[in-house]
Amino acid sequence: MINKELLKTLSDDIGVSLDSEALLRFDTYAEELVETNKVMNLTGITKPDEIVLKHFVDSLELLKYAQISVGASVIDVGTGAGFPGVPLLIARGDIQLTLLDSLQKRLSFLQKVLDVCKLSANCVHMRAEDGGKDLSLRETFDIATARAVAPLNILAEYTLPFVKVGGALYALKGTGEDIKLSEAAIRELGGELAAEYQYELPNGDKRMIVYVKKISQTPTRYPRKAKKITANPF
Predict the structure, then answer these.
(1) How far apart are alpha carbons 168 and 178 in whole angstroms?
(2) Partner residues linked to 144 by β-bridges
(3) Confidence grade of residue 233 (pLDDT, cut at 50, 70, 90)
(4) Mean pLDDT of all residues in 179-201
(5) Lower Cβ count inside 10 Å, N or C end of the chain?
(6) Can you give the pLDDT at residue 149?
(7) Pairing of strands 122-125, 96-101
(8) What is the widest separation between alpha-carbon atoms in the chain?
(9) In 38-103, alpha helices (H)
(10) Beta strands in 115-190 (DSSP E)
(11) What is the pLDDT of residues 99-119, one digit of tens each?
């Protein structure tokens, strides 16, 4: 379905090497995404080359900037159709991946993708604000990631509670947000704004990855309920 040579070329350009098995898995993933999208709203991006650029390459850009050790535990919070988590797992089969989402039917789709691609990940059906309070998940991950449009001060409250001290949050975002306005929120949640990496996709779309270090435990009162987070952000 997808142009595997295009994906290989673009991934090579960002320093991510994909072998033939990985390319086949990406092709299978794209097929399942497009087919399931006919009956479930997973994505507005269904053209093969756009899937490669805007979903796969955009997710893999994280590997250019993030320091992900071998065997690292990674949680993709609000994973949706699996981005960036599943592409990371295809490229880095050594990571211990958890995909968290509030909608079971999305997780059922992702479990099917994992099965047909012969991959293993933990699919958790839970809202992020509940997962952040769950002691089996709270502050247990080396890395949390999310690809979301929420402002960073809100996104940080949903994600940083999952990260252990010494770990990191990598938030994939569009450009234009003044990230420094979120510094107070990040500090309150036990984090430290470490870096922001700006890049362009091959089609010219501008993107940004925000790197937050977890330097202290998140106070137990966070995360708050979703209504409080959105109504009264930091």
Answers:
(1) 20
(2) 75, 169
(3) confident
(4) 96
(5) N
(6) 75
(7) parallel
(8) 49
(9) 48-50, 58-60, 62-65, 85-91
(10) 122-125, 141-147, 163-174
(11) 999 999 999 999 999 999 999
Q: Do the Cβ atoms of 99 and 124 come closer than 8 Å?
A: yes
Q: Which two tokens stand for residue 231?
A: 């109504």
The Cα–Cα gap between 159 and 168 comes to 10
Average pLDDT over residues 43-53: 97
Average pLDDT over the chain, rounded to an integer: 96
Of 214, 77, 59, 62, which Cα lies nearest the Cα of 159?
A: 77
From the CA atom positions of the chain, what is the Rg in Å? 17
pLDDT of 46 above 90: yes
Instruction: Say if CB 55 and CB 45 are below 8 A apart.
Output: yes
Report the distance separating Cα 186 and Cα 153, nearest Å.
7
CA distances from residue 182 to 44, 121, 174, 203 in whole angstroms, order as listed: 29, 31, 15, 29
Token readout for 9 is: 């070329």
Angle among Cα 197, 46, 88 to the nearest 5 degrees reads: 40
Q: What is the Cα–Cα distance from 234 to 217, expressed in whole angstroms?
A: 18
* Tokens matching residue 110: 């992702």
